[in-house]
Amino acid sequence: MERAPWQSSHGGPVSSDWWSDPALYEAMERMGAGQRRPVPGVLDTSCVRTGLARQLETGVPPASLGAARNGTVCLFMERDTLNETCRKLPRFAQQLGVPTSRLASLFDREWLPHIRVVALPPALRELDDRALAVRSLDADDYPAAALAALLSPCVLLTHDRKHFGPLGIQSSSQGVNAVIAALDVKVGEMRLQAVVAMPAAPFVAAHAGIRLTIDHMGPAAWVLIALVVAGALWLYWRQAPARKAAIKTAAADAAHLLLAESQRAALSTQQSRERLAMYLVPRPQCVTPTAAVLRELATAPESMSATQLYDTLSAPVRAPVGALRDFLHTNKHSVFCEAHRGSFLLGGRYSIVNDG
Fold first, then answer.
1. pLDDT value at 346 more than 70
2. Per the count of CB atoms within 10 A, which of 76, 177, 301, 309 is most buried?
3. Residue 30, exposed/middle/buried by CB under 10 A (0-12, 13-18, 19+)?
4. Which segments within 140-298 are labelled E, that is strand?
5. What is residue 58's three-state secondary structure?
6. Same domain, 269 and 294
7. Residue 293, phi then psi, degrees to nearest 5
8. What angle, rounded to 10 degrees, do the helices at 241-279 and 207-217 form?
């Protein structure tokens, strides 16, 4: 079967870096995150450095930041990891040949608004043995490892495969590959939505245009097509009966196109899901109630109360409402943010310029 234009023959991302096209992220932001929850991601200092370097060189934010902006990935950073990053910004600036103030401003202005910062207390850091194994290798990586372990399965954006090996990191590009796979999944799902919402009749006149758009625009084409579906349907139903009959007669060719595209979209999306699962930090063998709460809030589309958490969590990891409420309030200035009275999000926003 013919592969999608942004896929390689083995199902991985192509080397043309389609995912670095700003137009794709802008189109995804207009489209919205949809019903699918974001993939939680944990950012390590090493990926901040390479991401800033790429942004300075190309003027385009890295894939991880673009994915955070359009809701594909929800980025988190442990407070101690952020502090480490801030300490290293002068060294990064010297290596990249720019003033420290410029690098700090770029990080503060374009990165931190899309990152939620979590300060894990010592007791929570020790809940997963994998994080303790990372601590034995490098204490500086312990905070990020502890957060990733609690949010797993999740993306861990790091280039340090040596110290993060206990969390299943086997290559320096694994985190970035996970982000690209998550973007592939979202694009594939939008393609499927567009095909399902596209009866052949209203679009037969645009058959050649659809094919040309797909060939030239790649994944961004499906975002555009999905945005005009409702308008096209409305125009079709306003046509005279004779005109509708003519459109239906000519719709056979478009139907074949849509069927082929739906098959390609379904296959591409499934391959992307499998690839994403392969790149994520795996789920722990035994999920604790604390980890279940953190991950639920990490992927929730809006803040949640203790009662909502109780109703959402499955029985094996569900704590009493009172215990959940106490846990949320006890840690609301470090682990959680109280967005509204009695309603919480995981982590909070942070500014190194305003907050120091």
1. yes
2. 76
3. exposed
4. 155-157
5. helix
6. no
7. -65, -45
8. 20
Q: Rounded CA gap, 300 and 291, in Å?
A: 14
**Domain-located, residue 61:** yes
CB 54 within 8 A of CB 62: yes
Q: Which residue range(s) make up the domain with 128?
A: 18-181
- Indicate whether 93 pLDDT > 90: yes
User: Strand runs (DSSP E) across the chain, as ranges?
Assistant: 39-43, 73-78, 115-118, 155-157, 336-340, 343-346
Note whether 147 and 78 are within 8 A (CB). yes
Going from the C-alpha of 283 to that of each of 57, 88, 295, 332, the distances in angstroms are: 36, 31, 11, 25
Residue 29 confidence (pLDDT) above 60: no
Q: Taking the model in full, what pTM does it have?
A: 0.77
For position 158, what pLDDT does the model report? 96
Q: What is the DSSP letter of 139?
A: G
- Are both 28 and 167 inside the same structural domain? yes
